[in-house]
Amino acid sequence: MASLFTKIKLYLEANSKTWDDTKVSLQDDGSGAYIKTFNYDGLEKPTADQLASYETAANAAETNASIDASRRTQYLSWQQQMEMIYKDQKNGTTTFKDHCDKVRSNNPKS
Question: What is the dotted CATH code of the domain comprising 1-74?
């Protein structure tokens, strides 16, 4: 199940708004997260049905964010990547491309 934060973020983006901690806040008193404050000009606080409609998209966004985080650690530092690219150009090899392909195949997006 997607987080309330992600569903609200998608709701805001669909309505040409961005997350702003001064305009929206979430709270969880132990029985689940809820919207504590929501103060956007020209936009009503989303209903439960509106938020539920973002469940699938929010699940996909959270899954892709997790995959992106894994990929970032596996791609190595930019210095190591530049070294691979330099050596590939100098030696006519495909080490960098092969490395990127492996990271992507190990962490596929749906």
Answer: 3.30.56
